[in-house]
Amino acid sequence: xxxxxxxxxxxxxxxxxxxxxxxxxxxxxxxxxxxxxxxxxxxxxxxxxxxxxxxxxxxxxxxxxxxxxxxxxxxxxxxxxxxxxxxxxxxxxxxxxxxxxxxxxxxxxxxxxxxxxxxxxxxxxxxxxxxxxxxxxxxxxxxxxxxxxxxxxxxxxxxxxxxxxxxxxxxxxxxxxxxxxxxxxxxxxxxxxxxxxxxxxxxxxxxxxxxxxxxxxxxxxxxxxxxxxxxxxxxx
Length: 236
Ligand code: SF4
What we know:
This protein has 236 residues and is mostly helical.
């Protein structure tokens, strides 16, 4: 999860609910028009998506792919196998994803939850209501809201918006947030103002990540960005 930053309140911060709604819809339309479907989340099974969501914390996706390939090669991308494997073995296989000891522990914590709560069954896990599931995922040691929501949206198909550092930066540059809002406030901004659809949330987050990776970097590269026509804070 991105850390809240101390923020100056820009004079043109958008506070009118109708304008917020209109702007978020317009952003999505522009991004989708430019780049189309992003086919997220890359993963062959929901379990792979859950593991990927945990491994991707603080690293780039290429490193996660290497870690996932190692797990697959060893027949360990399987709930049962991973649950009973020694933590040291998991750490060794996921080494390319960085912070591998911490992440091995997080995977173990998640698997303890998965077996304790749902007997290792995706169907049983997915039978829980979204709110209850989110609360339980957030209670797992080492799982922050971005990871929990990625699991909910991309592995369990729930209409929950995923917020990351790219989202925060983009919204701040376009006067939709001050920048010091917490994760839940930004999630709520989307969930209350765009159609609550898991398909839309799936694409919207993926499109924001693409914008963040290629344009809305620490130094904005607005030329060629689909959102270049929108009013933005030139100082950021
Ligand atoms: S790169 Fe520029 S135009 Fe694109 S989202 Fe960031 S601030 Fe907006």
